[in-house]
Every structure is written in C-alpha cells, then in structure tokens.
Amino acid sequence: MDELDTLVDAARDGFARSASPAELENAKARFLGKAGRITELMKGLASLPTGEKKARGAAINQAKQAIEAALSERRQALAAAQLEAQLAAEAIDVSLPGRQRGLGGLHPISLAWERIEQIFGSMGFDVADGPEIESDWFSFTALNNPPNHPARSMQDTFYVDMKGEDGQFLNLRPHTSPMQIRYATAHARRHADALARGETSDIRVIAPGRTYRVDNDATHSPMFHQVEGLWLGENVSFKDLKVTYLNFCKAFFETDDLVLRFRPSYFPFTEPSAEIDVRFQSGPLAGKWLEVSGSGQVHPQVVRNMGLDPERFIGFAFGSGIDRLAMLRYGVSDLRLFFEGDIRFLSQFR
Ligand code: PHE
Question: Left (φ > 0), alpha (ψ -120 to 50) or beta: where does 289 sit?
C-alpha cells in the first residue's frame, strides 16, 4: 500500500476514534495542522526533481482532500450524536399526568340536603333556616317540654355558658324542631288573617340544618343534620303525613319499591307521635326496617305557642336525620366517614 493511502487510513482511524469535537480537533492537527503530516509532505515537495513535483503534488492533494472529507464527515456525525444525546436528556415525557387543579364536588351531606330541599320544594314546601344557638324556649318550652319535665332527658344537650332572654342557659339546638315555632310564629299573623277573610291558608315548611347532641358512635356524631317538616292547615291529617313522607322517600331513594311503617312513639310536641321506619323491598338494604324520622300530629299546646288557634290549625311535623338518609341512599355504613374529610371517601361522590 502506498504511503499516502496509509496516511489517509490513519487519519480516518484517528477521526473515528475521536469521541468528542475537542479530540477530533487534536486529530485534525496531527494530519492537517501547520505541523501536521500533510503539511510536512508538502514541504518535502521542494526537494523533489522538477519532473516528479507535479505528480507527487497532485497525489498529496488527493490524500489531503480525502482526509478533509473524512474530517467533515466525522464532525457531522459527532454533532448529530451530541444533538441526539441532548434531546434524550432534556426529553419531556408527554405521557406523564399533568399537574391539575383538583375538580371539586359537593359533600354527600350537601347532596342529600339539596335533594331534600328540591323534593319538598316540588311539593309546595317553603325552606327555612334558623339559629344553631337557641334559647331554652325554642328548643324545649315552646315545644311543650317545660323545665324539669322528664322528656328533657331524651336529648343529651350541649349548654352554652350564657343565658338567653328567658333567663335560661342557651343551648346548641338538639333538634331542628325550634324552627317549627320560629317559622310558624313569624307567619302566624298572615295565616290567621287569611282564615278570618275566609280564605284557605296553610303553613308548609321544611327547615334543614345542623343539630348537636352529646353523642358519638358509628351512627351518632355530636354534630349532625336534621330536616324539620311542618304542615299546618285547616284539614291536614295524619293521612297527609303518610302520603307526603311516602312520596318524599320514593323520590329521595329513587324507587317505588319501599314501604313505610309508623311505629308509636313519644315526643312532647306531637300527639300522637310515631317513628317512621322505611323498608326497601329490593336492593342491598332490602328486608330491614330502618328508622329515618320522628313524626306526629302537632300538639295543640305547641300550636297555641305558635300564636295560632289549635281549633283551626291542625297538622303534622316530622324531624328526619339527613345523615341517616344520606347513609341509606349512598350505602355508607359509618356516619363518622362523613366528617373525617378523607378525600378518598369524599371524591366518590363527585
Ligand atoms: N325533634 C325530634 C327529634 O329530634 C323529631 C321530631 C320532629 C318528632 C317533629 C316529631 C315531630 O328526635
């Protein structure tokens, strides 16, 4: 092999072994630089006889061009490899889930609450709201449950270390029944006037809200939710209670396949009184009687305390546990799950 071919091979080999642009520049200097092999050969031309110079010069030039071509090829290859490596290092994995803002949703108690308002609203019930810190009068006395009456111990009430206008300690309302008195009293005049004019007039309201008792287990929490219902008019009977509550349950649970049972009970503010139990005829809860509400015909003394004539205004009231209704509707077995704020539980209701 000719000496120049060997040189070109050596250059190709040197370039191929250069792993970085800097190494490649060093290799280039060895062959094409001022002190490089090609330059040396060119200098050597001077000492050749004139007749040989031309052919030898052309051969060296050819070798030089071959080396330059190999150099530029290797330069491009190294640049491409560097780009490739950089792209791989900086790559964005488009398959990673993005950082999103969490999609909010209503709490299951709020869902049940809104549903209750919507259903009773469709049956002509007004929706009322009232204080959670109550006076003794509204929580008990006006509801025919006077001081020292044994029925007061039906609820383990939270008392506030402050007295109300009636000189009695304020309480965290243990039920929504005070709203019966508040709402009816506020509207009593209008209804009495309407009756006096010979018009029909009735009080039809629900009052959902927070309630408090000294209670804490899988089915009771110190803070819970009730919805009070009140329907008073000239001819409102227990039959209306049954129909109203049955229709409510069918709408709330989205099934006609249920029956109600009115189980005799006692509340100072209703007479007669009944617990309302529901039984599903199909589905996961089928077959069991499940208590959902207290109820009864409003006691005449309570109607009087509302400022109404019990001879003209008769009707029913009920007080249902919203949490209980939500547990049954959503199949939740422990009431405390509603109040722990665990996102894994709550996000199931989105
Ligand atoms: N207030 C009663 C309770 O909390 C429920 C009830 C309301 C009963 C209205 C009768 C009428 O247990």
Answer: beta
Mean pLDDT split into 10-residue runs, the chain, 350 residues: 86 92 91 90 87 88 92 93 90 82 89 98 98 96 92 87 92 98 95 89 96 89 96 95 98 97 97 98 93 98 96 96 96 92 91
| 215 and 174 inside one domain | yes
- Residues 168, 135 contacting (CB under 8 angstroms): yes
Six-digit token string for 11: 């250059």
Which of 25, 55, 89 delimits the end of a domain? 89
Q: Which residue range forms the structural domain that includes residue 188?
A: 110-349
Around ligand 1, the residues with Cβ closer than 6 Å are 175, 177, 267, 270, 273, 294-296, 317-319
Contact 7, 69 (CB under 8 A): no
- If one counts the domains in the chain, the total is 2
Distances (CA, A) of 11 to 17, 18, 19: 10, 11, 14
**Structural domain contains residue 287:** yes
Residue length, the chain? Answer: 350
Q: Of 89, 121, 152, which residue is a domain's last?
A: 89
- Would you state the pLDDT for residue 1? 57
Q: Do 328 and 212 belong to one domain?
A: yes
267, 296 contact by CB (below 8 A) = yes
What local confidence, expressed as pLDDT, does residue 131 receive?
97
Q: How far apart are CA 160 and CA 141, in angstroms?
A: 17
Q: Do 155 and 82 fall into the same domain?
A: no
CA distance 295 to 273: 6
The rounded distance, in Å, linking the Cα atoms of 94 and 298 is 66
For ligand 1, atom 9, the nearest C-alpha belongs to 318
Q: How far is the CA of 228 from the centre of ligand 1 (A)?
A: 8
Q: Is the pTM of this model over 0.70?
A: yes
